[in-house]
Amino acid sequence: MLSREGMRRELEREWAVIERAEKKLVDEKKEVVAEWVDVEGAQREYDTKRDEFEKDVSKQFRFLPEDTMIVFNVGGQMFRSTVKVWARDRFSILAQLCTKSPKLRPDKDGSFFFDRDFWVFRLILAFLQENHLPDTVEELRELYCEATFYRLGMRWGDEEDDLLPQRVESEPDSNGVRQIVEWKVNEAGDKVKITKKVKKVTEVERISKRALERKKWAKFGDALDDGDGSNVTYMSYEEVTLEDPNADQILPGEKKEEENIFAGVKNSSIVVCRHCGMVGDHWT
């Protein structure tokens, strides 16, 4: 069984180990924050380049109005839909034929002819309209091969509407308040915009001069491995008994716990004669 001194030393060693682990976690947190700042910077750069790219694309691809009907004759089967559907992948052949200056000339009936399998093309149209994919592996393979012919990219089926806008954080104003705008999807499946205002407040903590002096003392034992900013606190587990010198004193308005049965008797005698019952000294 450990003595009090041995128990105290054991607890001090465990406390020092915990503080070293805590310091390591703080350092790792700083590294993660630094990496996150780099990621946000790269994200802002990506957004800027993407905006520039979108502007260039809008200049080069002048699409017809979204509600314009375009007809494709695939293997003798007519497929009719709007520009909004055909141009979901703006860099595909189908989208290029929905521009104001298509590379192919339409037939006399106004349709564009493709000598391809119409049975597989119906799968492409179904996905462009309703995001519906076939259930069998064979049809999925045929869909992939046919999508490659029409230059439909690997991300041709992605829904841009399902992507949430990026988190936007403004610079602090004159009062130190910055605005953060975020988006999320609620339980009903709707996009919700969340705007928060955050203000950074610096609190000043005052400590005594002696506490500052103690922090400058040379460390020893297991505390030698701790950094300069660590704060090692030791606790004493010895039993300390305190006695109240005013325990018998009765404060104003406080009742006595036990009444003194002799409080009413001052200088009088409490002797009672067993013969006549008279109180006090007397002759019988």
UniProtKB/TrEMBL annotation:
GO terms for molecular function: translation initiation factor activity. One of its GO terms (biological process) is protein homooligomerization. The keyword Transferase does not apply. Residues 70-153 form the Potassium channel tetramerisation-type BTB domain. SUPFAM superfamilies: POZ domain (SSF54695). Transmembrane segments: none annotated. Keywords: Initiation factor, Protein biosynthesis. Residues 171-284 form the Eukaryotic translation initiation factor 3 subunit G N-terminal domain. InterPro entries: eIF3g_N, SKP1/BTB/POZ_sf, T1-type_BTB. This is Eukaryotic translation initiation factor 3 subunit G.
